[in-house]
Amino acid sequence: MSPDRRLLFVHAHPDDETLFTGGTIARYTADPDTEVTVVTCTLGEEGEVIPPELAELAPDRGDQLGGYRIRELDAALDALGGPRHRYLGGAGRWRDSGMVLTGHGTRAGLPPELPARALAGPEGFGVQLAQLLDIIDEVRPQVLVSYASDGTYGHPDHIRAHELTAAAAAARPDVVAKLYYAVRSTELQDAGLAELHEALDGDTGRTGLRWPEPDEHPGHDPAEVTTRVDVEKFHDERIAAMRAHATQIDVRSGSGWTAYAMSNRIAQPLLGTEEFVLEGAAPGTVETDLFEGVETP
User: Fold this and answer.
1) Residue 104 pLDDT > 70, yes or no?
2) Three-state secondary-structure class, residue 166
């Protein structure tokens, strides 16, 4: 029998589930009354590769990264407790659209040319929505989670995942009670960097990573955050999941501190809280549980 509470995450690429919502996935997967399902829309074929020994997987070389990231995702989900998993339309149906960096820091935009089968391609939306609705009809989640409308940092696949999830929630109001957008506020990021700086005794070079410049990591308006989930106790699970995504995430740690970076080598702190914005929330909404107010059988 299906658990009373059902939660579905819609992510663009392998590793996004860990970076944005890994602690929340682990927390609810550990709850026997909650069924957690993760949807991954692409194989992340256009990602950059961090370890030199895996460089031939890259899209401009062997173009085998997508297949390798299936293995990474399997290991990461196992580390997070083993939630259920689906690829949108099946593994490899939609390809990573890629991105170009625009403006300051890590902000991204749509590349001038899209690969064949790109998730963000204008012709695919209707088919993709039908595929996501098929999963929702099967899982029947009361709660959906994806990204905010800006895709957190502008990646076109994150924006498409947001659009699909919002449209799916609107199409199934009898199933979906709550729609959340995973965000990271400037306030939380700044506090995390300050704590990491203190743990390093001010010697940021100990991380082996580049310390971020002001406003280099896009952050969400803290006033819009409605829901903060405490994931501190799932620190080890999140670290293991990040390490599983070795082509994409570089994890560094020492006595009393942990930092990580993507291929840009810009240090980020591992935060003990994950933040969300509840779609349509009343002003002043403050939550600590994604299922707050959800009626279950």
Assistant:
1) no
2) helix
